[in-house]
Amino acid sequence: MLQKELMDTTDAERKRQIKILIQRMDNKEREEKKKQLKELKDKEEKEMRKQAVKDGKKPFYCMALLYWNI
């Protein structure tokens, strides 16, 4: 929809605004995907740790991992 408006518009200022809006939407979508991926990885890691504790292994906590959110 915005792409079509971008092509149809002749006003330079309006084109600039539309380009900025499209870029903002793309960035937001990319960041949302990145956030979902991180949440999924965190959830999987938490499940692995739970399973390891159930299997009788001691929990492993590394301060560097906690500090840097790895």
Automatic annotation (TrEMBL):
One of its GO terms (cellular component) is ribonucleoprotein complex. Belongs to the RRP36 family. GO terms for biological process: rRNA processing. Component of the 90S pre-ribosome involved in the maturation of rRNAs. Required for early cleavages of the pre-RNAs in the 40S ribosomal subunit maturation pathway. Keywords: Nucleus, Ribonucleoprotein, Ribosome biogenesis, rRNA processing. This is rRNA biogenesis protein RRP36. Residues 29-51 are annotated as: Disordered. The keyword Chaperone does not apply. It is found in: Nucleus, Nucleolus. InterPro entries: RRP36. It comes from Laodelphax striatellus. Associates with 90S and pre-40S pre-ribosomal particles.
